[in-house]
Amino acid sequence: LVAAALFLGFLFLVTEVRLGDSGAKAGVSRSDVVSFGQVYLGFTSSDVARSVYFDDMVVGQQSLKSLKSAIELEVSKGMFSDAKQEIIIEIPQETLSDVVGGKIIFDVSNTNQYGELVIVFNGKELFNKNVPTGRYEISIPKNSLKPENTLIIYATGPGAKFWASTVYALRDFGFNAVIESKQVLFFNVFSEEIDIWNTGVMNFQVAKASNEDSKLIVGINGKEIYNRFPTTNQIELGVRDIRSGTNILSFKSENGY
Length: 257
Hints:
Layout: E1 4-11, E2 34-44, E3 51-54, E4 57-59, E5 62-78, E6 82-83, E7 85-90, H1 93-96, E8 99-111, E9 117-121, E10 124-129, E11 134-141, E12 148-155, E13 165-180, E14 183-189, H2 191-195, E15 199-203, E16 215-220, E17 223-228, E18 234-237, E19 245-254
Parallel strand pairs: 1-2
Antiparallel strand pairs: 1-15, 2-3, 2-4, 5-6, 5-13, 7-12, 8-11, 8-13, 9-10, 9-12, 14-19, 15-18, 16-17, 16-19
């Protein structure tokens, strides 16, 4: 897949803006949102004052961040047994801002299947099934996640087999935050450049998008300046968008782009 080039020009009485072909290539998987080739940041007018180059970048890949894990857990329910698990899961604020969901992954290593295995998250039942041994994954939507969360795991009773207990033994239990990757670029603008700033133009081209309904989100210095499927590939930067010193340019995606 041919990567795209990103050109950010700071214009001072501009006569022309040129976007060069980087010729770079970058591999992307099905979950990738967008892949950029060589990123070029420069000043442009009749003369190029200076330029900065960045490495290739890909945004939109999802990864799992482990928030809680246990090698073994066991729950049971019966006349003489009532063992359940209650787990508090905290999500740091800096992680929560990048989270697009949660995922519970575990193996049922042993069970007599006399009753159901039940999983409740923040008071909402996510799972209630009579299951054999095997591997299971449960997805949690982003709007169900809080800075502090409560996960309860228990078994229901054995029914007609009142003399026995339902038992579920779990192994390799993990609660994970689903993180969607973003890229952050830093560039400097000097105070004398602010004084003569006319406008800024950022040109870019998407190399690969796996979902046409999703959006590319671009921000500068904490302010969102672009949020759409990139049918257009130019963003203007006014003097109020930038600041003297270090500026922060961010790229991320939405809905698994």
